Structure formats: C-alpha cells, structure tokens
Amino acid sequence: MRVYYESAREVPIAAETDILVAGGGPAGFCAALSAAREGAKTMLIEQSGDLGGVATTGLMSHWTGSTKGGMFQEIVEHTKVAYAPEDLSYYPLINHEYLKTWMLETLLDAGVSICLYTHAVDAIMEGNQICGVVTESKDGRRAILAKLVVDCTGDGDVAARAGAEYILGRESDGMMQPMTLMLQLGGVDRSKITYVTEFEKDWILPQGSLQQLAREHLSAPMGHVLIYPTVFPGCVILNMTNCTQVDGTKAEDLTKAQVLCRKQIEQIVKFLKRFAPGFENAYPIKTASYIGVRETRHFVGEKTITEQDIAQARVFDDWAAANLHFNFDVHGLTGAGLDITGQQESFAQKKGYTIPYGCFVPQKIDGLLLAGRNISGTHLAHSNYRAMPICANMGQAAGVAAALCIQQSVQPRKLNVRLLQARMRELGVAPD
C-alpha cells in the first residue's frame, strides 16, 4: 500500500474531564449517566447525531434480552409510551424518537458534557496508560484529556488504538456474525399477520412455511423471516436484510453491507406482499441510520466470560453485572437463519447469570474500562451478552466503577470489587 506522510501538528486540547465515555449506545449512555450521578466530571462523545445506538439509530423494534433492576429498568420505566391498539404488552417496545430525546435530556440534566458528531480516532498514551483520546469532527482534530476512559464503542475503537489485545470474531477462524439494515414498513394490517420474532418460529400459510418460502424466493444471503411489532399503528420492523462475511472494523466492508442490504429491500417487500396476508399494501417507511454490526473485536481482559458460564448461570465472586438473561443469538455466519451453534427459543437456561468485573478491564492497558459487546468474552458468550439490556447493565457497572476509581485514586485493575458490588446493591443490582 502506498503511504502519505502527514506532517506533525499541534492538536488543540478541547476539554479535560475525569471520565470520558466513548460511544452513546445503551452501554455508553448508562456508563456516562451512572458516572455523573456518582459525582464524577463526565463527558460523552458519539459519532452520530443521536444517542441510543442500536436502540435508536439502529432502528431495533424492542429490547431483546433482559435484566432486573438498575438503570435499564429506569430506561424502560421512563420511556414507556402508549402501545398500538393491539395488546403488545409482552414486548418492551421502543419509540425511537422519544428515546433519543429522553436520553439526551437525561444526560444533560445529570451534568454530562456531550459531543455528538465526534469520532474517536486515536488514544493518547503515556506508556501503557491511556490519558485521553484524539477526536475528529467538523472542528477538525481535537484532543480530550481524561483521568479514565470507558470504551463503549461496540467495536472497541479506543481500546484497539490504545494497543489492547483482542480477538476478531470467532476464535477458530475470525468469522463474524452478519450485518443487517433494519427496515420499518407501514401500511400493514396487523390483525392479519403473525409476528415471527425468532428464527425457530414460523408462520404457516396455505402455500407452506413462510420461513421455507423465504429460502426459496429470497436471494442469498437473505432467506429468513423476522417480523417484529412496533409502537406505531400499521407498522412493523423487519430484520430480514443480510450481509455475511464482512468485517465491521473496515469502512469498505461497512459500505459493502450497506449497499447490499439496501438493494435487498425491494425484493423483501415484494416477497411479503406476495405471500404474507396483511402485507398487501405495505411500503417502506425508513431504514436504520446505521448498518447493524453484531460482532467485531473481543478484547482480552483480566477475566473472560464463556458460553459455559452463561449456560450454568454462573454467579462470580467478583460479579459486576448481574441478573442477565438472553439466548445464544448466533445469526448464520455464512447464510440466512440461525447458526448451528445458536439457540433462541430452544435456549433452556432461564436463570440470570453474572459478568465478572475483570471482563471490563483490558490486560496491560491502564486508565481504561470496557462496556458493551466489546468486553472480554468468547464468540458464543458474546452472542448472549451483546443484547442491549445486558449492555446497559454493563454500562452502569462500568460507570460506577470508573467513578470509584477516581474517588479512590486507583487504576481500574486495582479497584476493590467489593466497593463496586456494595454500590451496585444500593442501586438495585445484585444476583438473586
């Protein structure tokens, strides 16, 4: 590859803060809010113009996965809106625009300094300690100094640039879960439809199984049906576009996925109008602002959570996040549907598990915490803990831990986890 040598230049210091949170999805929102509420001077940067991540700009219809108590419960309680006429109360549905506004106002009310449209492009290091990040925005290149950084970018962009060790994708071969562009349809007669909310569920029609019809009539790598309810009358959200064998840490692959998934929309709408009752007058309303990236970097932490830990509902002595529950949501790595390793409806473990604090602490790099899908865990475990409520729970724990580190003047790896657990219990988060 040819190279261009950039001249050395001074980078203005735009801000100094106690805690800098990178990424404004569920994990980042909760990390920033909890840190600020614990009294730490806190700043959050987000590359898009809105907070919420997959829950908002990603156009996800509902909160998948679950947890008890803590900040996620607060999110749900404060963002409940009137559902459509049908009884959809079994789903914690998302009103995207309401959630965007509520998250923004809630952080501002807590005293969090927010910078939107701002990318974290490099880590400022002193030896093995991160001391801030370099950002790019309309203002150009700027530095933000921080005593502690919480990486909630999903892909772990800050941690990677700080030199933290990671595994990309599946341990055996680097394969990653596919990308999806979520699609909202209007004009749907919901009284006639059957929601298909898991790969293992189906809609049986006179012509046969809708899942099987999708395999026959949708071009690969499409071929599955996932139809979700929404809070908006006459609307559904589809999780049916599909792009496999792409890497979310590469702009060229993100572009490839965006182009392919957008091209798939017309075929999906025609398919549903042809085969699925209630979709005769359906039309696209909008797509997600960002392609949905499920999996990229898994960082190597002081501890690593595995699929066995989740299957056994393990309660770690050094837990930081607790009462977490989801399934092994592994979308097909090479094609449509559920991967052979995945379990959705068939997932048998019903108890809540915990995540140890060490999963949030990358090896060798000081001044840094992880929260969200970039923590230290295996490929299969990640398919469970990447669910948004679980990421929110992790974000709260990371934010509290970051504030405690500032108060105690210790590095994250030296924090007494009992202090964190005691505070989390006070906040309503603890293993059953």
What does this structure look like?
The protein has 432 residues and is of the alpha+beta class. The chain has 2 domains: 13-171 and 296-333 and 351-426, FAD/NAD(P)-binding domain, CATH 3.50.50.60; 183-287. It has 10 helices and 18 strands. Strands 1, 2, 4, 5, 6, 7 and 18 form a 7-stranded mixed beta sheet that branches. A 4-stranded antiparallel beta sheet has the order 12-13-9-14, with no helix packed on it. Helix 1 (26-37) packs parallel to helix 9 (388-408) and helix 9 packs across helix 10 (417-426). The longest helix is centred in the middle third of the chain and has 25 residues, at 251-275. The termini are far apart. The relative contact order is 0.19. The model has no long low-confidence stretch (mean pLDDT 95).
- Low-confidence residue ranges: none
Instruction: Compute the number of helices.
Output: 10
Structural class: alpha+beta
Q: Which percent bin holds the helix content?
A: 25-40%
Using the coordinates above, name the CATH class of the largest domain: Alpha Beta
Question: Could you tell me the radius of gyration in angstroms?
Answer: 21 Å
- Measured distance between first and last alpha carbons: 55 Å
Share of β-strand residues = 15-25%
According to CATH, what is the topology of the largest domain?
Answer: FAD/NAD(P)-binding domain
Mean residue pLDDT: 95
Biggest sheet descriptor:
7 strands, mixed
